[in-house]
Amino acid sequence: MGKTEIISKKSVCVEINDIVLPGYTNMYHTLFGGKLMEMIDKAAAICATRYCHELVVTASVEAIDFHVPIKVGYFVKLVAKVIFVGNSSMMIRVNVWGEEPLSGKNVHCCTAFVNMVAIDSNGNKVRVPGLITETEQEIQDLNEALEIRKSTLHRRENRRKT
Ligand SMILES: CC(C)(COP(=O)(O)OP(=O)(O)OC[C@H]1O[C@@H](n2cnc3c(N)ncnc32)[C@H](O)[C@@H]1OP(=O)(O)O)[C@@H](O)C(=O)NCCC(=O)NCCS
After folding, report:
1. What are the start-end ranges of the E strands in the chain?
2. Is 133 in the pocket of ligand 1 (CB under 6 A)?
3. Domain boundary assignment for the chain
4. pTM metric for this prediction
């Protein structure tokens, strides 16, 4: 595995803002789920790349919950953060808010957990720096990520058997 020399580092957080244009919507005039998934994937990819400075691919989206629809014309804010790091994989939590542009009132609309893997130019996995967790929140996030990872590994194991 890879070239990375740094043993461990702090988490990285990425914020992306966009606006729900009519071309992004479904027949209910709210943000199309597939479009939001694309935004989430991009936010997670930027976040993971900024963390490890390697090429990354999406391995899986472990959970995605759409809590509230986001209307056309609203602003969309995505906040992606590295919450777990393995050897070559990173789990990125992406939280999404919808904001009514005139009032600035915003609502938490979606949460997703995306597993990204660092690879070299031949597609082979590469090692990434370990994650330093400092704050109470980061430790809580890590524990949540470890629970999610347990079910990922369990699912992958079961798939292998079939
Ligand atoms: C993701 C990928 C690089 C993993 O390669 P692999 O040879 O299966 O690697 P391994 O089984 O040894 O796993 C490598 C790491 O990825 C993790 N991983 C692999 N598949 C995973 C999945 N489906 N979900 C979560 N993590 C996964 C493993 O847990 C392991 O983590 P660790 O190194 O931190 O312990 C490979 O399956 C791949 O290239 N998939 C296609 C990716 C893609 O095209 N994405 C869409 C476009 S970006």
Report:
1. 8-10, 13-19, 55-66, 75-85, 89-99, 106-119, 130-132
2. no
3. 8-161
4. 0.95
SS3 call for 81 = strand
**Closest residue CA from atom 5 of ligand 1:** 125
Percent of the chain with pLDDT over 70: 96
Ligand 1 mutation target, pool 46, 117, 128, 158, most atoms within 8 A of CB: 117
What are 68-123's pLDDT values in tens digits? Answer: 999 999 999 999 999 999 999 999 999 999 999 999 999 999 999 999 999 999 99
Task: Look up residue 98 and give its amino acid.
Answer: G
What CATH homologous superfamily does 8-161 map to? Hotdog Thioesterase (3.10.129.10)
